[in-house]
Amino acid sequence: MKRKIISIDRDKCNGCGNCVTACAEGAIEIIDGKAELVSEVFCDGLGACIGECPTGALVIEEREAEAFDMKAVEARLAMLGRTLDGPAHASEPAGCPGAACPGTALRRPQAKRPLEGEDAAALSALSTWPVQLRLVPPFAPFLAGADILISADCVPFALSDFHSRYLEGRAVLVGCPKLDDLAGYASKIKAILAEAGPASVTVLRMEVPCCAGLAKVTVDAALQAAPDVPLEVHTIGIDGSITREVITPAGV
Fold first, then answer.
1. What is the DSSP secondary structure assignment for residue 141, as one 8-state letter?
2. In the chain, N or C terminus with fewer CB closer than 10 Å?
3. Residue 191, CB half-sphere, CA atoms under 13 Å: how many?
4. CA-CA distance, 99 to 147, in Å (whole number)?
5. CB atoms within 10 A of CB 191
6. Are strands 200-206 and 147-152 parallel, antiparallel or unpaired?
7. Would you say 189 and 240 are in contact if contact means Cβ atoms under 8 Å apart?
């Protein structure tokens, strides 16, 4: 049937999640840092989400679409632990699968000062959150002009001094090229480098062959989106050894 339904421009979307919380029917999710319509049957086409979008990424269009299905909406909200009036229980937040999950909010953790007699080297050097590559939007303020560290998620387990050696003073992005979508990583990293204009990029990969993809997509993205940005790839051995490679605009 032809009816009014929401349309989302991914290029304009900054992943803020305002539309997600504004949609009572749970029709929108943040997926890979962008708002997406989960299913046409969940969208009533009234556009309550539009006024909450700071970038103008949402509009109402009239086109062929599946009919709005209130029973499907009720089933989805039940799955999310919500009702049309909000959370199903006052003490519970809306379910993260369909809402802007509080755990993915952009933050800058404050560095801790060591207590008297405490070893400063034992303190966390993490200064940005979230760390998962799939959850960090390209517009994240902490990425702008930063020294960006793109690390395979196994690396910290092989390096006892990961925080002091690599993490301090850097914005970190973590992922696994073996378990996640490498093509998605490629487009995400390219968007981040183009948007952030980083001071430098350091890639940490494990020596195992399946980890090479993380370095390759980052090098390719950097050569396209930020060819003048200093770029290094460090290969970490399972025994904790480190091999450092400087990448030039000419390629690997």
1. G
2. N
3. 21
4. 31
5. 18
6. parallel
7. no
